[in-house]
Description:
- By secondary structure, the protein is an all-alpha fold.
- It is built from 1 helix and no strands.
- The radius of gyration is 8 Å and the shape is globular.
- Residues 1-22 are annotated as: Disordered.
Amino acid sequence: xxxxxxxxxxPAHAAAPANIxx
Length: 22
């Protein structure tokens, strides 16, 4: 599974944690 775990119903890469964003 990807490191960014999104809530059910959303794409995994649409809700990446802040630590990944920057």
